[in-house]
């Protein structure tokens, strides 16, 4: 007798489905997201056959065209493949999933449910229709038009409450803003006080301007007020740098009480604070920024690069007093002459018409989903994930140093950031890496990369086999 042909496995029929959310975006996109999640979690596996479109439509209570559009979109994302009358199947793993995945660059994930091309085209069409072209292609040496500042104040309101537009300046990215603040408030050789792990761009800026980074001791709540006061007096510091919400790289959030204590020390000693706050919008219950507690002490920096897109090159700076604007902008122009007028106009339009909030909501949803996938991936290690933001901080087992792990990951076409890239403290850097979750092209690629990383973490360097050709 000839052997029977093995029937394709039907992927748990439709047990992977969940009810669609009325406020969750286009229904076909929600179906695609459910498919991607089921594939990433291996509820659906390569070769599984999906139910007929009509059956799925009935189960979800949607029309057939919605499911047809969802299947078409899933094929475009390389999740599914159609085989004529045989049906639609989960696509097998492709070699591109083993190509280079950069989890070292902290960028917001691109949300699959948003058509960025359409969003960009629509926003640009409105901008060009209501603006004179010559004004979009000439020098703008101020800190933004009144409309730009009003839009910025509106964007910052969830974190800061009402902000006078006169205090807000539009800058060509956070890096230029940070450099301008350091240049304005310190002199050559001065100390800038930070926590022992700090955003590398700040460290580079301080050193290139001839200033010094001096780390202040921390505890579980963050920078210690007693150590801060001691460092201010010892180094005659004029400036403190803090990234208090979902800190880069540790993803730690400074509690409200500690923020108040730090602000009191700064006020008593007459020291200004840079509050670099790119991740506040990702934190579900974030304390009020220090700027909301002590606005006259703080230069508050909020960039769109971490919550919308790096390509916008737009950051908003809230000044402690409008009177410092001229000096601040003069310093900005030593690094970048101006924000790009076309990008600034687009950002203002998006904030005014709600497109920026739509994009932010989609990025927040995608970031949460990726944090959940990371938590599932690392669950066996017993290390809890933050479940917020676009990066996580992963302690390493004793058999790996951060540099060795990063080097081994590169050999496996995967990039992560070792702790010494952030370390300005004394002694040895912690045995840890930062993993940026926005680098994977989609959730499926991210899951594959995280699994490869988990396998690498579990294998001591001495047990890794080298292939010699």
TrEMBL record:
This protein's UniProt keywords: DNA-binding, Pyridoxal phosphate, Transcription, Transcription regulation
Domain of life assignment: Bacteria
DNA-binding among keywords: yes
Region feature (Disordered): 1-21
One Gene Ontology molecular-function label: DNA-binding transcription factor activity
Keyword Transcription regulation: yes
SUPFAM superfamilies linked: PLP-dependent transferases, Winged helix' DNA-binding domain
Domain HTH gntR-type: 25-93
CDD domains in alphabetical order: AAT_like (cd00609), WHTH_GntR (cd07377)
Family affiliation: In the C-terminal section; belongs to the class-I pyridoxal-phosphate-dependent aminotransferase family.
PANTHER family attached to this UniProt entry: HTH-TYPE TRANSCRIPTIONAL REGULATORY PROTEIN GABR
Protein's recorded name: DNA-binding transcriptional MocR family regulator
Organism: Paraburkholderia atlantica
